Amino acid sequence: MKYNKFMKIYEDIASQIRDGRIEGGALLPSENELADSYSASRETIRKALKMLSEDGYIHKVQGKGSIVLDVTKFDFPISGLVSFKELSKKMGQRAKTYVEELEKIKPSYDYNDKMKLGKDELVWKISRVREIDGERIILDKDLLIERYVPSLTKEICQDSIYEYLEGELGLTISFAKKEITIEEPSMEDRRYLDLEGFHNIVVVKNYVYLDDASMFQYTESRHRPDKFRFVDFARRK
């Protein structure tokens, strides 16, 4: 019964935050006030707050309380090279990845030219859908040169390709060139993403290089526009 109680409290508060009934930056009532409001013990409230914190809904500040985070949009750094797994850690169980496609192919002439491939070189083609709060809102499409990545599995793609490349293969991922455009959704976008009512998507193209300046990856990250802020820090020289 205690498990059901704290889960119900967690789901109620999480729902209010997602719907905007509790706005980002607001301070939740104290543990005592929540306990009175939900007719629950402080221990039950603490369990619910702990889960809210782990899943990225609130941030607990010592001596201040629980500050509500803005979950309606997700910050993606423009200049950084960060994996989705690293970005989604603060979301806890709210974020899921589905591998829709994983195969080794001979790329088209356009990609051959972009990636400076040899005549018969193969690449891994990967399509992954990112689901957040039950909505499919990102389609990540990757091409990885087989010469640098001899083997790849669905499990690796579902977890973190960059962790595998750096931790298991010992590759040093150094820098990327990025392009950001606004486009009409493709048939593939509409097949994989929840785009009802949306007529544009944000497309981030990455040309990713190793420390010897060899390009090894081309990525298109296709985002539903209502959920993302692309952020950077700039300093005038």
Molecular structure report:
With 237 residues, the protein is α+β, with helices and mostly antiparallel strands. It has eight helices and ten strands. It has helices at residues 2-18, 31-38, 42-54, 84-88, 109-114, 154-159, 161-167, 187-192, and strands at 58-61, 65-68, 74-77, 95-105, 123-132, 135-145, 173-183, 201-210, 215-223, 228-231. A six-stranded antiparallel sheet has the order 4-5-6-9-8-7. A two-stranded antiparallel sheet has the order 1-2. Strands 3-10 form a two-stranded parallel ribbon. Helix 1 crosses helix 3 (42-54) and helix 2 crosses helix 3. It is elongated and about 70 Å long. The model has no long low-confidence stretch (mean pLDDT 87).
List the helices and strands and how they pair.
Layout: H1 2-18, H2 31-38, H3 42-54, E1 58-61, E2 65-68, E3 74-77, H4 84-88, E4 95-105, H5 109-114, E5 123-132, E6 135-145, H6 154-159, H7 161-167, E7 173-183, H8 187-192, E8 201-210, E9 215-223, E10 228-231
Parallel strand pairs: 3-10
Antiparallel strand pairs: 1-2, 4-5, 5-6, 6-9, 7-8, 8-9
Helix pairs in contact: 1-3, 2-3
